[in-house]
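anyone seen this seq b4? input:
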Amino acid sequence: MVEKIIAYVRKTWPAFAVLCIGIIGTLLGRQYVISTVRAGARASFRHAAATARDQMRQMLNRDVDLLFGMRGFVNGTQNLSINQWTAYGRSLHLQRHYGGVGALGFAPQVPFRDRLHFEYLMRRMGLRNYSIFPPGPRPIYCPISYAYATPLQTARAPGFDLLTNPQRRAAMEAAVAGNAPAGTGRVALVRGRRVTARKGVLVYLPVFWPRRPLATPAQRQAALRGFVYVLIQPANLLQTIAGSAVGRHLKFAVYDGPPNARELLYSTSGAKPTGMAWSSEISVAGQTWTLAFHRHGGAGSRSQRLLPSLVLLGGTLVSWLLFGISWLQIRSRQQAVEVGELLRASEMRYRMQVEQSPLAIQIFRPDGASVYVNQAWTKLWG
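predicted toks r here
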């Protein structure tokens, strides 16, 4: 049995060689397609993540740039009132044009000697029971006084002295030192007179009294009138990105600083590391946010994911087809050889029978010429 198999393989080995070469080529082609699809998916993912990052940066810069218009409004309005500030806030259509801004306000700087008079003016303008808190004497107060919030923003704290919170105070001092917007990072928001669990990012820009020198930090501090600020709520902003054409194909998380759970600002559902990830940083009013993007779904489109299987199936079918064609050719050649051997053997048997016949036999061509005589003819006729 083994000998028959060995003999069969020896006869048909070219067909098996074609089959092996075809299968090896198919496997190599499949691996190449897999590598190409993965490389294309990585490039597409990186492009989508970079596009989403640029969108975030553009939207954040737009929200922060709103501060300069607010400062111009404060400087250009004499005897600023609560109603004027509210009308200004409504005219901005925050939810439509500034999706990340939950509130905006102006916090004037109030010396200790002017505290009671300032509280009285605020109550006169419609803020009932307005008083600066936390209570206690301090040289300078910077209370929330002129504020406008979107309907979705519930954290309102008229009278809250921003300078009593270390994170807010540090950002305000940085804004004065650089005469530029400065952010707090993620801070707990205040509602009424208590700190809530809600978090947000506050960005401050100093407002100065007109016609005052502002060349040095000391001169800017002396000319300080107060601060305009915006409350940026990353969830509102980033949900817009997540719902965009680019964001729907991504999962991402945004951190206020290095990526860790304590500094998480926003995360899409299930934004956990997968086989394809990319991170980048953007600057937000002096603060660094880390954006961690992850692949959403498989590598490439559905057709691209099916392509390696199609290559494997098609290559296997072609390999077996070539094997069949080669086997048939080899088999046909072997049959032709066997038929030729049978013909030669038949011819030899016929020749021996004629040669050994006791009868005298002579074979002629059609033209009458003799072409063969056997031994009996030779003995008979010489």
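DSSP finds nine helices and 13 strands in the chain. The mean pLDDT is 84. kinda curious what u guys think
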